[in-house]
Amino acid sequence: MTVASAAPRPVPRAPSIVRRLAGFLYEGVLLFGIVWFVGLVYGVATDQRHALKGALGLQVTLFVVLGLYFIYFWSSQGQTLAMRTWRLRVQAQDGRPPSPLRAAARYLLAWLWFLPALVIVNAAGLTSAVAITSVVGTGVLAYTALARLRPDRQFLHDVVCGTCIVEARTGNPHTP
């Protein structure tokens, strides 16, 4: 009786950065509905009559709700609704969806897309929508460019969390 040695799984190459950014933008469109609904419920529940009163509470609530959204979909199916549309999937090194703990770490570290730019916006005291959008957009593009430095083209938060984005297989054998 011979025991076959388990060969290490080859890490699949990531889908193109353009495709992942398209999925990222589509995710933002879908999240707009969630953010709007949570904002409505929060405003009614707290009797919020002015946008600046209770803003921190709303931000914390949105952070938690969005975290629950991502953690649930990533750990149960490996895909959010937008990722399913773009046939992208997040997986752990073993090819399965990440554990809830790993998905939570990925959610927290994925804020690296925005956090450095938001710190700059705050430190510079920027209030113009054009200036804020420019700084955040530049930050997102800079973070995206970091993936080009890696041979597997994975983003920093995926590398740190031991996850990767791959092309999702479909049930249709005729679909590439």
Walk me through the structure:
With 176 residues, the protein is mostly helical. The protein has one domain. It is built from seven helices and two strands. The protein has helices at 17-45, 55-76, 81-85, 100-110, 115-124, 129-147, 156-161; strands spanning 88-92, 163-167. The protein has a two-stranded antiparallel sheet. Helix 1 (17-45) packs across helix 2 and helix 2 (55-76) crosses helix 4 (100-110). The longest helix is centred in the first third of the chain and has 29 residues, at 17-45. The chain is globular, with a radius of gyration of 19 Å. The termini are far apart. The model is unreliable at 172-176 (pLDDT under 50).
